[in-house]
Amino acid sequence: QTVPEELQNGGGFGYVVAFRPLGTVSWMQTVVASADAARYVFRNESLPPFSPYEVKVGVYNNKGEGSFSPVTVVYSAEEEPTRAPTTVLARSLSASDVEVSWAPPWENQHKGRIQGYEVRCWRHDEKEENAKRIRTVGNQTSTRVSNLRGNALYHLAVRAYNTAGTGPSSAAVNVTTKKPRECWQGSWQTSPHQVFVQICQAQHFLFNFFSVRFFPVLYRWNRQSSTSVIETNRTSVELSLPFEEDYIIEIKPFSDGGDGSSSEQIRIPKISNAYARGSGSSSCSACTLSALSTIMISLTARSSL
Question: Could you tell me if 114 and 161 are in contact, meaning their C-beta atoms sit under 8 angstroms apart?
Answer without folding.
Answer: yes
